[in-house]
Amino acid sequence: MSLNNAESFAELGLGFQNVSYRIKDKQILGSCFGRFRPGEVCAIMGGSGSGKSTLLNVLSARQRCSNKVMLQQQNVQQDKNKLFTTLQTATSYVMQDDELLPTETVLETVRFSTKLRRPDLSKEEAEKKVNNILEVLGLENCKHVQIGSALKQGVSGGQRKRASVAVELVTDPTLLFLDEPTSGLDAGSALRLLQFLHLYARARNATVVCTIHQPSVSVMSQFDRVLLLQTGRVLLHGPLGMETTVVQTLAAIGRPLPLGYSLAEWLIHVAETATEEEKEKMEAATRKTFTEACRREREFYSAKIDQQDENGSKAQLMAMKKDLPRRLKGANWFQQSWLLTCREFRNFYRDTASLILRLLCSTAMPIFYWLFWYRNGPNSPPDVKKYTDFVQGRVSLIILVNLSVGFLHALPVVVSFPSERAVFLREYSSRMYNVVAYVFSKFLIELIPLILSTAIVLGLMCATIGVYAEFGVLWLTSSCLGLATSSIALLIGAGTGRVVEAINLLALIVTLEFMSSGSFFPVTYVLSWVDPMKYLFGVKFA
What is the CATH T-level fold of the domain 14-305, as seen in this structure? Predict the structure, then answer.
C-alpha cells in the first residue's frame, strides 16, 4: 500500500449537528456539532469523562444517536437503509486497547484481516497489500514476531498499536477513527504513529479522527483540526494555528494562550477551569462560526447541483465529489470458517503449555483409576464378583470416567472464550465474520484433543482395569458426552465476561447434569416437575 501513488480515492467528509446521546437518565452528549474534512487529521480532546469515546462511537456508526450525522450533505440517520450502512462500510475503527491474539504473528494478524475483508483480491495482490501496509507502518522487522501478551513476550507496545492500525487499513478506509491511539506509547512512538496518520490522510484524501487526552507539542502539530469537549458539550471547534478561530475565541473570553504554554495543555486547562459563563460564550461563538461555515458550504453545493448536465437532469451530489465508497463484499461463510479454523489450529498447537497439560491429564487419570480400582478389575479375587461391591465399583467407575472426560474438555473451552472475548468483539464489530463461523471453527478444532485424549483415557483404562464393553462404543459415547459438555462450556463462556464466573457456573451446571441423570439414585425420587431437566444434558443418554 504505497502512499505515494497517484491513485484517486473517494473524498468523504463528515459533519454532525445536534447530536445527543443518553444512557438512562444520564446525558452523555448534548447537542454536539462539528465537521471533519477529507485530507485532515482531527483531534477530539477533553478530560476524562468528557464524552470523547462516546462521540467517536456515534460518528463511526457503532452507536445510534438522536438527530443527524452528515455524509457529504446527506443525512445518515434519515436514510438508514443505505447511508448508515455506507458509513459503517466506509469506516475503520481502532480501539484504545490493542485486542489481538497473542499467539499470532504480526504478519499472520494482518493477513487474516486481509483475506476476510478483501476476498476480491488475488493471492498475489493480497500478499502485496499486506507487505506494503507492514512496510509503511514500519513493521517489516517484526512481522514474524508473535503479538504476545502480559505473560508472554512479543512485540513492543508501539508495534502492537501499529499492528492494530494495520489490521484496519486493509480496507483502505475513507474514514478512520482511532480511540486514544497514543495511550501507553512513549513520545517517539506516539509521534511516529501520528506522522503516519497525517501522511495517510493527505495521500488518500481520508478523514482521520482521533480522541486524545493531552498530546505533546510535537504530537499536536500533526493535527489539522480540534474539537474540545467538556461534559458532553462542544466548547471549541476549528482548525489549529495561531490565527485561527480557536485561538481567537480563547482571547475573546479573556483566556488568551499564555507564552510558554502549548495549545493542547491550555485547551484542557480552560475546559476544566472555565466558569459556566465562559463555557456558554465559547459554545455560542463556536456554534455561530460552525453555522456560518455550513451555510456557505450549502450555498456552494446548491450552486453546483443546480447546474444542468447535457441531458438536462440535475447533477447529483454523489457524482459531484466521486461516489461514496462501494461496499466491500467480505468472505463468504465457507471462507470464514476455513480461515478461522486455520487460525484456531495455529493457536491450538502454539499454546504448548495447555497442550502438554491436557496430555498429562489424559495419561494421569487412567493411572489413578488403576490404583483405586485395581482389585475391581481382572486381578480381583474370585469371591469379590459374588457381591454387589463389584457392580457398584464398575458403575461408579463409568460415572467417574464420564465426569472426568466432561470436565477435561469443558474447562479449556470455558477458560479460553472469556480470554478471547475482546478479540472476538473487535473482529465481529468490524464485520470480519459471523458468529456461526466462529463457533463452528471452535468446535472443529476442539474435536482434535477430544478424540485423542478420550482414546488415551479409555485405552489405558481398558488395558489396566478391564471394562467389559466394546471399546468403540465406549469411546464414541464418551466423545459425544465430552462434545456436549464442551458445548455447554462454550455457552457459559460466551455469556460471562470473567474466567472465575465461567468456572463457577460450569461447576454448577455439571453438578445439575449428573444429579439429573439418574446415575446416583433412582429417578423415582425426583420431583415430577424437576425430572424433565435430565433431557437437557448429555449424561442421561451416555
Answer: Rossmann fold (3.40.50)
Spatial CB neighbours of 136, under 8 Å, sequence gap ≥ 6: 1, 2, 3, 196
Per the listing, cell 459425544 goes with: 480
Residue 243 in contact with residue 61, Cβ under 8 Å? Answer: no
Considering the chain, what percentage of its residues have pLDDT values greater than 90? 19
Q: Which three cell numbers stand for residue 279?
A: 463555557
User: CA angle 383-386-387, nearest 5°?
Assistant: 110
Would you place residue 519 in the very low, low, confident or very high pLDDT band (cuts 50, 70, 90)? low
Nearest to 480 by CA among 423, 439, 537: 537
C-alpha torsion sign, points 168, 195, 217, 293: negative
- What pLDDT digit, counting tens, does each position of 258-305 carry? 887 888 888 888 888 888 988 899 989 888 888 887 777 665 445 444
Helix axes 245-252, 276-305, angle to 10 degrees: 150
Q: Break the chain into its structural domains and give their ranges.
A: 14-305, 333-536
Contacts 24+ apart (CB under 8 A), 501-506: 502/414, 502/415, 502/417, 502/418, 503/411, 503/414, 503/415, 506/410, 506/411, 506/414
Q: How does strand 41-45 pair with strand 14-23?
A: unpaired
Q: Which amino acid is at 339?
A: L
Q: Say how far residue 155 (Cα) sits from the centre of its chain.
A: 19
